Amino acid sequence: MTTTPAPRALLQAMFQAAIEAAQPSHCIPPHLPAAPKGRLIVIGAGKASAAMAQAVEQHWPGPLSGLVVTRYGYAVPCERIEIVEASHPVPDAAGMQAAQRMLELVANLQADDTVLCLISGGGSSLLALPLDGISLEDKQALNRALLASGATIGEMNCVRRHLSAIKGGRLAAACHPAQVITLAISDVPGDKLGDIASGPTVGDATTCEDALAIVRRYGMDLPDSLRAVLESGRGESVKPDDPRLARTRTTLIATPQMALEAAAAVARVAGVTPYILGDSLEGEARDVGKVMAGIALQTVMRGQPFPAPCVLLSGGETTVTVRGNGRGGRNVEFLLALGIALDGHEGIHALAGDTDGVDGQEDIAGAVLAPDTLQRAWDLAIRPRDSLDNNDGHGFFQALGDSVITGPTLTNVNDFRAILIT
């Protein structure tokens, strides 16, 4: 007879399974290429890139060298591949210098050489190299504007690609005529290759005009230097049919769907039926929270669309339009909106977290929600709606002791949401 774990323990076990399924130590070895006739150069960027590099070193018998850049605190020991740490989500000089060195590293390669590029979420900020005429300060201002705008990750990365000297296929073009093999861990809705770290090794069909339209759509106030690059067309990216990309290929080695399936397996063992609602849900985090609450309440009260006990799993990347000055992230914003809409209904528990361990700009992955969450907040004189209006999800859940803190997970397959209905 199966004994179902306590709701919080089960939710945390599912979250941990999702993270574990995307660990580079599992995902890298099956996808390593054959040894080239020439050199193997390893490059990469992202929150998982150092762990990916370590897995390559541990399973590659021949000579190699390289450079990858990861987030501060996400480095792991490597012997032959240099690991550089830089800032995320707002770029810094360390990331810019690493990007410049990476381009220098792949210059003058030969056709017999192979470049193994390790890409994961976070690479857009970590691999920051502005086009000529754009300062690092301008790129930092751009990232802050994008993060606060409410734009989707696809829209944000379209703008980034057209203001970069390394994204939007430019890194792969710099490797020509060498073969370029990219192993990618997806953190974007739909697993769109051009959006993972803004596609440094992937041809880009979007244009400067598309980027300008996004800037106008969200009313972003760009520095003059950035607007001039877009308006002139000087920031045009490398297109998919560019001959310099003829010897490139990309393989997705871990995705949000894989992580959700791992979590679903944990639920089944516990005797709870999992339903995956989607691996690429987008929209305002608080709006997604309201919709999910409606589905959960219909399940509890009507047995539709699913019978209880069950767990509703979803992934993707919601957005937050920042209006307050609280401490927040998209997962805790979702969870707080969900809790307000559920209004303490019995038998519904939830967890929402970012699989990289960082929700927003703090080293807090997310939080858990229980039927008594709102009452415990009121007992502390915390008004849930005020916290939501102030984008203060982290402040809210931390005061209750309900934050989920994982530390650096060394991977990133986007957001994880689980609503457990007992």
UniProtKB/TrEMBL annotation:
Pfam families attached to this UniProt entry: DUF4147, MOFRL
Any one GO cellular component localisation term in the record: cytoplasm
GO molecular function: ATP binding; glycerate kinase activity
Protein name: Glycerate kinase
Domain called MOFRL: residue spans: 310-415
MOFRL-associated domain boundaries: 11-231
Signal peptide segment: none
Keyword Nucleotide-binding: yes
Alphabetical UniProt keywords: ATP-binding, Kinase, Nucleotide-binding, Transferase
SUPFAM superfamilies: GckA/TtuD-like
Protein origin, superkingdom: Bacteria
InterPro entries: GK-like_C_sf, GK_N_sf, MOFRL, MOFRL_assoc_dom, MOFRL_protein
